[in-house]
Amino acid sequence: MIALEKSRQYLEQLGLVQAAAVLESRLEAAAQKQLPYAEFLADLLGVEAAARRERYLRTRTRLAHLPYYRTLEQFDFRFQPSIDERQVRELATLAFVADAANVIFLGPPGVGKTHLAVALGIRAIEQGYGVYFVRAHDLLEDLRRAQAEHRLDRRMRVYLAPKVLIIDEFGVWPYDRAAATALFALISARYERGSVILTSNKGFAEWGEVLGDAVIATAILDRLLHHSHVLNIRGESYRLRDKKRAGLFTTVPPHPGGLPTEPPKE
């Protein structure tokens, strides 16, 4: 028992906390199975490695400010047949991140755009990429305020640092020219340097109206779309699915192309 306690103390001193916690139980299991010393050591260190990876993923996910935890495995592709599942699976390989390409999800509220964006973000975190999630309204208000306070360059670093920047709900609110200019500066700075995953309920032709400046909107789209994957989801809302089944909601005819003219907040 003295040797066991010393071993536990040494593990704790080395920072191998999880290995120290399971040392006795793993020793008993190894003795019962008559495992060679090397296999016992590999098993013990494997427990520590798994615990450290779990802590790493939790920390990186928290720092990414993701609104929730969603994976591709949780996405119901059968409910949204307009989505090319093979294309999404290809995006999940993260080749687009290596190429500093962008992913744009278009569609009405509730069709799973944010779910897919978050799922790709989680996959990127698992592969060691830095990820940051921000609502479009919060992003543009932050950049506009920083620009007015003459600290835009310093604030911009927050959105330039991650390899993957997720901008959610673009188009829900209209913006003024100052916000549009700040967004253009950000997209230009990330161009061919880092990936943007963007969700929007507005078609590209409406971006000029959203940003209050057609010229700036065209310049932003020019950079976003140069290296990009665009997925237009034309299905129904997940959130309203059960209500429709219960007869509590009447379907409104969709806008041509699946994008509503004046969508509610997603």
TrEMBL record:
GO molecular function ontology, one term from the record: ATP binding
PANTHER family on file: ATP-BINDING PROTEIN RV3427C IN INSERTION SEQUENCE-RELATED, CHROMOSOMAL REPLICATION INITIATOR PROTEIN DNAA
Record key words, sorted: ATP-binding, Nucleotide-binding
SUPFAM superfamilies: P-loop containing nucleoside triphosphate hydrolases (SSF52540)
Similarity annotation: Belongs to the IS21/IS1162 putative ATP-binding protein family.
UniProt name for this protein: ATPase AAA
InterPro entries to which the protein is assigned, alphabetical: AAA+_ATPase, ClpA/B, DNAC/IstB-like, IstB, IstB_ATP-bd, P-loop_NTPase
Domain AAA+ ATPase: 99-231
GO biological process: DNA replication
